[in-house]
Specification:
Helix Hairpins, 21% strand, Heat Shock Protein 90, 13 strands, three-stranded mixed β-sheet, binds magnesium ion, alpha/beta, binds adenosine-5'-diphosphate, 13 helices, five-stranded mixed β-sheet, elongated, single chain
């Protein structure tokens, strides 16, 4: 619900009573109507098809209950009650908002504050609305608006926190490899001057490694910006899935070995060809395997591939599983948002930018597929990526 929606709710949306009597109906008859329906808050009085006024239950019985009230009023027409009222009935157009109606009702003289009011429209008979119905509706709207405002505020704060945290981590992440590049470069100049070639090679390797890391991060940020701007295109080709899997397996080896993990790939041999964006698929899988390898130590990483067929078409399902640190339910809820990492200790301990999964999910969806996760804290995680065997240009 939008907060502004409270402004759109009018008296027309309230439950109403349409009981009416003619101006010549006598007091005793009206008393019978009020007794018949105990919830009736008042009665509309019409004269020759036109709205003449309203008599509220409270005012009616107050007058009738006075000494000689019954004798005096029960035989007289109901208009006697109307005419003796110091105020005429509060009449509102159907477009009056609940908030304005409440203000107008409460502005009535104190003895009439709880009286019903009348909603008048050209296309229907006058309607009588109970004051209590109005107040209940107003309370309901205010409560809903309050809850909505509260959750919008919480969402805004959390998005802004994620962004600030990202900027803080990102500047650290960018500075570290840059410092390494510049530092090694400076030492290298000294090495070359002193003719130390063996040392120079080691430092050059470190420079290239830092440069590659930097490039990877900058690419992720630029890719996300491109997707957000709606400028990321699909590049669909037909390629061999076994070849892609072999390529990914060899690319993943150094990542897997780093923390002493083992890697097992099981692929359904019947799937040969795919028509998809090979490079986005490769990047998505490397991201998932990279995470599995990063958050698991001395454990097992698996890549399982099978085919599925349902009413949605033919799918290739990739499952990347690990026996690593896992995640709690609450950590998983915001997993696919950009810049999000399960908690702030993650970036300190494992590095990263919180962009990989967000990018992976977006690539997957661009291909017409889905990304989902299952995880148990301290036991392991499985990411399931389901993509069409044949993607189509959207
Ligand atoms: N296999 C996994 N096991 C445990 N936690 C994971 C796994 N993959 C992702 N996560 C959690 O999700 C967060 C976001 O992942 P990602 O978007 O790839 O960012 P990054 O790897 O840069 O931290 C990680 O920081 C981590 O908290
Ligand atoms: Mg990652």
């Amino acid at each position: 619900m939008n907060i502004n929606a409270t402004q759109d709710v009018t008296v027309n949306d309230l439950p109403y009573f349409a009981v009416q009597v003619s101006h010549s109906t006598v007091g005793a008859e009206v008393a019978r109507l009020f007794e018949q329906d105990r919830s009736l808050p008042g009665i509309i009085v019409m004269e020759q098809g036109r709205f003449r006024g309203m008599v509220s239950r409270n005012q009616f019985f107050q007058r009738l209950g006075r000494l000689f009230g019954i004798e005096v009023y029960s035989t007289r027409p109901i208009t006697a009650f109307l005419d003796s009222l110091p105020t005429t009935a509060l009449q509102l157009a159907t477009t009056t908002t609940i908030q304005n109606a409440a203000i107008l009702c409460l502005a009535r003289p104190v003895e009439y504050v709880y009286d019903p009011f009348v909603v008048i429209a050209p296309d229907h008979a006058p309607r009588l609305v109970d004051f209590l119905a109005l107040i209940l509706k107003q309370t309901e709207l205010l409560t809903a608006a309050q809850i909505e405002a509260h959750s919008q505020r919480a969402a805004a704060i959390s998005a802004s926190n994620a962004k600030s945290e990202f900027l803080a981590n990102m500047s650290h992440e960018l500075r570290t490899p840059l410092t390494a590049i510049i530092g090694y470069g400076e030492i290298l100049i000294e090495d070359v001057k002193a003719g130390q070639t063996a040392e120079s090679v080691r430092r050059l390797e470190a420079i290239v490694k830092s440069g590659l890391h930097l490039l990877e991060m900058i690419n992720a940020v630029l890719d996300l910006a491109k997707i957000e701007a709606g400028k990321m295109d699909l590049f669909l080709t037909t390629f061999s899935l076994p070849e892609l899997v072999a390529e990914i397996t060899s690319m993943a080896q150094p990542l897997i070995q780093k923390n002493g993990n083992s890697f097992e790939v099981t692929a359904d041999p019947t799937i040969r060809e795919m028509h998809s964006d090979e490079s986005k698929l490769r990047q998505a899988l490397i991201n998932l395997i990279g995470n599995a390898a990063k958050f698991t130590s001395q454990g097992r990483i698996g890549l399982a591939i099978h085919q599925e067929e349902d009413t949605g078409g033919n799918w290739v399902v990739f499952q990347v599983s690990d026996t690593g640190i896992g995640m709690s339910e609450s950590q998983m809820t915001r997993l696919f948002e950009s810049f999000y990492q399960a908690d702030s200790s993650i970036s300190r301990r494992y590095g990263g930018t919180g962009l990989g999964l967000s990018l992976t999910k977006q690539f997957c969806e661009m291909l017409g597929g889905y990304l989902s996760v299952e995880s148990v804290l301290n036991q392991g995680t499985t990411f399931t990526m389901k993509v069409p065997v044949r993607s189509v240009e959207s």
